[in-house]
Every structure is written in C-alpha cells, then in structure tokens.
Amino acid sequence: MMISTICIIAAMAMNMLLAASNYRTIWGYIIFDRIDIQCEITPLSFEELSRRAPGESSASIRERVVRARKIQEERFREEPSVHCNAQMTSRLMRLYAEPAAADMDMLREAMNRLQLSARAYDRILRVARTIADLEGSEHIQRHHLQEAIGYRNLDRSDWAERGV
Fold first, then answer.
1. Residues near 54 by Cβ (< 8 Å), separated by ≥ 6?
2. Contacts of range 121-128, beta carbons closer than 8 Å, 24 or more positions apart
3. Which of 7, 68, 97, 148 lies in disulfide reach of 128, CB 3.0 to 4.6 Å?
4. Each residue of 60-109: pLDDT tens digit?
5. For residue 138, what is the DSSP state?
6. 3 near 42, Cβ under 8 Å?
7. DSSP-assigned letter for residue 55
8. Within 13 Å, how many C-alpha atoms sit on residue 19's CB side?
9. Helix ranges (DSSP H) in the chain
C-alpha cells in the first residue's frame, strides 16, 4: 500500500467530510461515517525518516487529484447530485465499479477470510474505483481492489479484540 495514495484519497474526501460533519463517538473513538479508508500506520524508523530520497512532489500529487476529479465529474455529468465516486449509488456502482469475474472471486474470498462487514463491500469498490481513477485506469484492476481491501482494517469483525 502506498501512503501517498492514502493521503490523496483522504484529501479528496475531506471536502465532503467537513461539509457533512457527520460523526459519532463509540468507546472514545470518533468514527466518521463518510470515511472509506481505515488503516493502521506503523511509525517509521529513524532510518526511514532520515532517508534523503526525494518523494513525489505536492504539485504532481495535486495534478493527479485534479485529473481524477475531472474523470469523476465527466463520468457522472448526467447524474443529478452525483459528482464523485463517494456519492455513487448501487446502480452506478454496478455500471462503473464492477470488477472482472476473477477479481470478484478474489474480493469474495477476502471478504470471507477477513470477515469484513457487508458495508465494507461498497466502500471497497468505491475506493478501488478512486484508486483506478488516480492511475487513469478505465477499469478497476486486481491491484486496485487489493489496495482498497487493505484500507479496511477497522471494518474487520475482530477490530475490537485487536485493541484498535
């Protein structure tokens, strides 16, 4: 999983999140209903922090986000009040976020193995569609699904037992 992808998708979602201010508190945790990415990030070691390798520039990240948003706006231009993947209905998801049959089998296996909730299914597909848009891919591919599945850590049935 790429940390930059997490940041990009989070930035794309922040506008809607701030406007909605729709959250609830459970056992001291704030869970935002409109956040589709839930992942644990381990701290970086000193060696990783002190590495001087150049990363992707903010300008190039911004360009990818702008391109992805334009792709989504074009995709949903005929749909009233739908402007981005986060707003897709079930009908739109069947049109634009349906993986290939082999990839659907992989998703089914992951859902069963990781004991993901039913709600996670739609969220995984929405995030996979956004990852594909960020890459400029017309269709969701297996690696898009795999990355999106990895972002559902807190939706697993055992999250409370893991102490998250």
1. none
2. 122/90, 122/93, 123/36, 123/152, 123/155, 124/148, 124/149, 124/152, 125/93, 125/97, 125/98, 125/99, 126/36, 126/85, 126/86, 126/88, 126/93, 126/97, 127/9, 127/36, 127/37, 127/151, 128/97, 128/99
3. 148
4. 999 999 999 999 999 999 999 999 999 999 999 999 999 999 999 999 99
5. S
6. no
7. -
8. 5
9. 3-20, 46-50, 58-75, 90-96, 101-114, 118-135, 142-150
What is the amino acid identity at position 105? Answer: D
Q: Is 42 left (phi over 0), alpha (psi -120 to 50) or beta?
A: beta
User: What are the domain boundaries of the chain?
Assistant: 3-155
Q: What is the pTM of this model?
A: 0.71
What is the average pLDDT across 113-134?
Answer: 90
Distance, CA of 3 to CA of 22 (rounded, Å)? 25
